Automatic annotation (TrEMBL):
<feature type="domain" description="O-antigen ligase-related">
    <location>
        <begin position="214"/>
        <end position="351"/>
    </location>
</feature>
<dbReference type="InterPro" id="IPR051533">
    <property type="entry name" value="WaaL-like"/>
</dbReference>
<dbReference type="InterPro" id="IPR007016">
    <property type="entry name" value="O-antigen_ligase-rel_domated"/>
</dbReference>
<keyword id="KW-0472">Membrane</keyword>
<dbReference type="Pfam" id="PF04932">
    <property type="entry name" value="Wzy_C"/>
</dbReference>
<feature type="transmembrane region" description="Helical">
    <location>
        <begin position="253"/>
        <end position="271"/>
    </location>
</feature>
<feature type="transmembrane region" description="Helical">
    <location>
        <begin position="184"/>
        <end position="205"/>
    </location>
</feature>
<feature type="transmembrane region" description="Helical">
    <location>
        <begin position="107"/>
        <end position="139"/>
    </location>
</feature>
<keyword id="KW-0812">Transmembrane</keyword>
<keyword id="KW-1133">Transmembrane helix</keyword>
<feature type="transmembrane region" description="Helical">
    <location>
        <begin position="371"/>
        <end position="392"/>
    </location>
</feature>
<keyword id="KW-0436">Ligase</keyword>
<feature type="transmembrane region" description="Helical">
    <location>
        <begin position="335"/>
        <end position="359"/>
    </location>
</feature>
<feature type="transmembrane region" description="Helical">
    <location>
        <begin position="63"/>
        <end position="87"/>
    </location>
</feature>
<dbReference type="GO" id="GO:0016874">
    <property type="term" value="F:ligase activity"/>
</dbReference>
<feature type="transmembrane region" description="Helical">
    <location>
        <begin position="20"/>
        <end position="51"/>
    </location>
</feature>
<feature type="transmembrane region" description="Helical">
    <location>
        <begin position="225"/>
        <end position="246"/>
    </location>
</feature>
């Protein structure tokens, strides 16, 4: 792999790549299984490019891809290492172990993006899909969901009917097409970055207007989902976008609008109650308990961990002493602590290297004027804000949403959304 111009690709393969990207974009708002199918197909197509020696990557993207593959390799073998060292008693559940695929999804998107990306079609699908999801969220926020979801969605009806308001004025947690409010709200942070980048950086007024409506829909969706960390991340990402992309009056107007959002949160009794519980959750509550158990696992197995996907089993083994329950034992409620507990210091270093290399590559493209890279960089910031109190890879719908945005941000030619260049072959935009 080098940075030389790519070898011409069969048009059928190019159409397959475009189809995978569109399917992935649909999955951002529709269903987790759609995202998983699209990500799996992207990994397969990336493998075909490598096998045919037709993959050409810039050095910084290649470094990110190599780090991603190295992390996946360690995740794959870490359960076996844990069994050999006595850190684990059995192999992790298949569904949890299969999440190693999510780790390399962003790299796969960057790889197949070298073939071509249907930028405008993807933007239309994401914008239209999120506006529909926002409308559904408004309904869910005010109407008690009237039917039991299909079993394959693995949703608790009690959670769908959880009332964050009062009996006289009920407010139910909105989850859009995902139904699950946290998957819905956290996934919104992934798509919020690109929407903010277009809003603040596009030279086409119509695109800015559409992006502004989408940003508003995402903020309302997060607000209606009563997702505290997601709302905080959304506000931080929005402030960073204002500082990066706009100046003068536009920046002041943006800050005023964000202040209005904060004010709306402050006058909402339901949100005041949610924020009041947040401090107790972190200090002396469920989140502190989950993190304390994570530190126990780290101290017991600092180098190699308990094996990828084994956090729950290892945490439950401490239940007689810690009181951890089945629900809280899934992870340590922090990306870095969970990665250290499961994959040890080796996995922690590889994870840090992967994200550092990703940020480095995105920053270079942002400085060159790529709106896709700017959006991906904003999403990267939001991801790490959320990761302080959530282990986002546990929900594939959330992790794969970020992976798509990051991969697209690394694709060559992504700056066309700024300069409005003509559309190239197979729906991909290329600079003239």
């Amino acid at each position: 792999m080098d940075s030389a111009p790519p070898t011409p690709v069969d048009p059928r393969f190019r159409r397959a790549v475009a189809g995978v990207f569109v399917l992935w974009a649909v999955g951002l708002v529709l269903a987790e299984v759609v995202l998983q199918v699209a990500a799996g197909a992207a990994v397969l197509l990336a493998g075909i490019l490598v096998a045919r020696k037709r993959l050409r990557l810039a050095p910084d993207v290649r470094a990110y891809v190599v780090a991603s593959v190295a992390l996946v390799a360690w995740q794959l073998v870490s359960p076996a290492v844990a069994l050999l060292t006595g850190a684990a008693q059995k192999w992790p559940r298949g569904s949890r172990y299969g999440q190693v695929l999510d780790t390399v999804a962003g790299a796969a998107a960057a790889c197949i993006g070298t073939v071509g990306v249907p930028w405008l079609l993807l933007a239309a699908v994401v914008a239209g899909g999120w506006l529909l999801a926002a409308a559904l969220g408004l309904f869910q926020n005010r109407v008690k969901w009237p039917w039991t979801p299909p079993a394959f969605l693995k949703l608790s009806v009690d959670r769908l009917h959880e009332n964050f308001g009062t009996d006289e004025s009920p407010r139910y947690a909105a989850g859009g097409f995902f139904f699950h409010r946290l998957r819905f709200a956290h996934g919104a942070i992934a798509a919020l970055g690109p929407a903010l980048a277009v809003l603040g950086g596009s030279e086409v007024a119509r695109r800015r207007a559409v992006a502004g409506v989408v940003v508003l829909g995402m903020l309302v969706s997060i607000y209606n989902a009563f997702a505290r960390a997601a709302l905080g991340a959304a506000l931080i990402v929005s402030v960073v976008a204002l500082l990066l992309l706009v100046q003068g009056r536009a920046r002041r107007v943006g800050l005023v609008l964000l202040a209005a959002v904060v004010l709306a949160v402050g006058v909402s009794p339901a949100w005041r109650a949610r924020l009041g519980k947040a401090v107790g959750n972190i200090y002396g509550g469920e989140r502190e308990l989950a993190m304390s158990v994570g530190w126990i696992l780290v101290r017991e197995h600092p180098l190699t961990g308990v094996g990828f996907g084994n956090h729950k089993a290892a945490a439950m083994a401490t239940a007689p002493e810690t009181g951890i329950n089945d629900f809280l034992a899934t992870d340590s409620h922090n990306l870095w602590l969970t990665a250290w507990a499961e994959t040890g210091l080796v996995g922690l270093v590889l994870l840090a290297a992967m994200h550092a290399l990703l940020a480095k590559a995105l920053i270079r493209r942002h400085r060159e004027g790529s709106l896709a890279a700017t959006g991906a960089l904003l999403s990267w910031v939001g991801f790490h804000v959320l990761s302080l109190v959530h282990y986002l890879p546990f929900h594939p719908s959330v992790h794969l949403s970020f992976a798509l945005v990051w991969g697209l941000g690394l694709c060559e030619g992504s700056g066309v959304l700024r300069d409005g260049a003509a559309e190239g072959p197979a729906g991909s935009n290329v600079k003239s």
